[in-house]
Every structure is written in structure tokens, then in C-alpha cells.
Amino acid sequence: MNLRRQILEGEGVSLDFKKTITSCEKIAKTMVSYANNVGGRLLIGVLDDGTIKGVKSEDEERYMITKAAHFFARPALEPIFEEVYYDDKLVLVVDIPESRDKPHYALAEDGKWWVYIRVKDKSVLASKIVVEVLKQSASNQGVLIEYSSKEKALLEHLDKTERITVKQFCELLNIGRRRAQRVLVNLVLTGVIRVHTTEKEEFYTAS
Asked: 39 to each of 57, 115, 174, how far by Cα in Å?
């Protein structure tokens, strides 16, 4: 692999630089967000600005990542390791493939298990709707859409305004959050609408 080229591309949806692994919770969160997305890669021994420092103890880094993947991620993950030398410095490359068993949960510092997804170069907490979409898309049950007045009203609204949040959808139809979430999950699963997560908000657009 061309390490330098990868580093020049910079951190993003599927690439993260780590100087060293200091916390199983933090690294589990990143790995889980990769598995729940399209997969991703960690470069251990690389600073945030792309400087290659190399790892001091490759065994220690491997141990932390394996521990995080097995005990801080549920279902457990199987990272793929590769060693790459650059100017006599060792960079540990860790690949996390996209999972077939979505959603994966990471054990947080508060002792709870949460689902994370990848947004740009950050691992962000997934909303209930995204968790449900991950669950159902993994089980491939297929969703039968019945276009009731709710779905029609939503699509007409998106035709005019381009985007909507859960709160706006509840207000638009005067329905409760749980009911609104069910409608949105089904429409996302069938590809009628798209869910967009940013660090600050989540909204929906027509596909």
C-alpha cells in the first residue's frame, strides 16, 4: 500500500490517524462506526497532521485494538492488521471491513452500549432511526410500503422544502415521535428518502 499517498488524502469517512491507542472505549467507537458504515482504516503511529512518528510497541497497540474489538464492541469485530515501514518507522495499519451484522455497539465510558456511525472524519452517535435502519437492512426482511396519507404528505413537503427533521415531521402531521420514526425508517429502507447525519442535526431529503 502507498502509505504516503493515503496520509496525503487526510482523515475522512474511512481513514483515521492515531499517534497511539490510549483508550479501548475511544478506539472501539471508531471501529464500530466503520463497521456500521462502509468499513475503514486506522493508521497507528501517525499524528493528526500526517507526520509519521511510528509506533513504539507494536504488540501493545495490537493488544489494545484486539481487546477493544472483542470486548468493547458488540457483536465483536475482527480487525485486519498490516505492518508498513516508512523511513525505518513502523506504522500499524488496521482495516475494519463493513459488517454484515449491523448495527454494532461500542461500550462507552458511561458503561452503556451505543451505536456509532461515521460522519466525515468523526464517529457520531446514531439516532434511533438510523439504528433501526441498520437493523432492518441487515436482516433483509424487505419492507412493504403502504403509501398512506402520512407518506404522501411527507413527500409533498419534501418536494417543496427539500429537507425535514423528525420534529418538523411530527409537527407537520401532528403525530407522536415514535410513529413518525416508524414511517421514516420504512421510507429510508426502501430508498424513497435519505437520512443525513451531521454533528449537530439529522434531517431527511427525497432520494
From this structure: 25, 15, 38
- Contact assessment for residue 42 and residue 6, using Cβ atoms and an 8 Å cutoff: no
Instruction: Dihedral sign for Cα 117, 119, 125, 129, please.
Output: negative
- Are 21 and 44 a contacting pair, CB within 8 Å? yes
Which segments of the chain are extended strands (E)? 15-18, 39-44, 73-74, 80-86, 89-97, 105-107, 113-119, 122-125, 193-197, 202-206
Contact in structure between 12 and 39 (CB atoms under 8 Å):
no
pTM of the model: 0.85
Amino acid at 183: V
Q: Which of 84, 83, 79, 82 is nearest to 66 (CA)?
A: 79
- Give the three-state DSSP class for 24: helix
Terminal-residue alpha carbon distance, the chain: 35
Answer whether 188's CB lies under 8 Å from 129's CB: yes
**Rounded Cα gap, residues 47 and 62, in angstroms:** 18
pLDDT tens for 42-86 read 999 999 999 999 999 899 999 999 999 999 999 999 999 999 999
Q: At what angle do helices 177-189 and 149-161 cross, to 10 degrees?
A: 80
If phi > 0 it is left, if psi is from -120 to 50 it is alpha, else beta; for residue 140 that is left
Residue owning grid cell 454533528: 199
Q: CA-CA distance, 93 to 74, in Å (whole number)?
A: 22
